Amino acid sequence: MTFSVKAKSKVSPLSRLGRRSVLAAALLAGTALAAPVAQAAPAAERAAPVPDLVCRLDAEVNFSPPLSVRVKEAKVTGHIGYLDCRSPSGAAPELTDIVFGVDGTGRFGVFPPTFSVEGNGVGTWNTGEVGSLYFKGDLKQGSPVPERTVTSGPLARDGINGLQIPTPRFDKITPDGVAGFDVIGQVCFWPGEKGRCTAF
Fold it and tell me: Which of 200, 11, 192, 187 is nearest to 83 (CA)?
């Protein structure tokens, strides 16, 4: 992507560098398959943890105003969807899907170029029960699903991990910065010690 400049306007080298940093961060986030946090091998005598739920991740985050070298913090809105869930532990077989409406803060770091999000979400499970969560983490190459904890409703206090593929929506990238990401992947809900979500 290139940014057009009027013939008579003067664009400083710092401005050009800033725009390249924002675009580079978006491209890195968009092409990365985030690996889950490395887990220590369980002791031979201890059974590996089993998640309460394994779900397909389908999320959208929007930054307003767009994040850039000039705007390093913005409001985050959008949704986090956990769909087609199953319950390996048998703790919650009735829970199959939920979509959380989210509200929080997005940040852009220049060195290295990084997008991050933090906030809270509230949604309704397919059973009609209301749940909420807290999320915090990066949308960048090599990052896991942002840290998430169920704060109320079914499976309250469960921790969530998994893998994600964040993709910038290029129709929302303007000379002012990056305004949105779509995120897909897989997540696991853990009642205690977290295991490796990709094992399920």
Answer: 187
Exposed/middle/buried for 119, CB within 10 Å: 0-12, 13-18, 19+? Answer: buried
Q: How many residues does the chain have?
A: 200
Token readout for 64 is 């307003």
Indicate whether 195 pLDDT > 60. Answer: yes
Mean pLDDT of 113-132: 96
Its sign, for the CA torsion 147, 160, 183, 105, is negative
The whole-model pTM stands at: 0.77
The two three-digit tokens of residue 116, written as one number = 């991050």
At residue 129's C-alpha, the angle toward residues 188 and 63, to 5°, is 60
pLDDT digits (tens, 9 = 90+) for 132-144: 999 999 986 556 7
81: Cβ–Cβ under 8 A, 6 or more apart, which residues?
A: 57, 58, 59, 97, 98, 99, 100
Q: 86: closest CA among 14, 184, 189, 199?
A: 189
Residues 6+ apart with CB under 8 A from 87: 52, 53, 54, 93, 95
Say what the pLDDT of residue 104 is.
Answer: 97
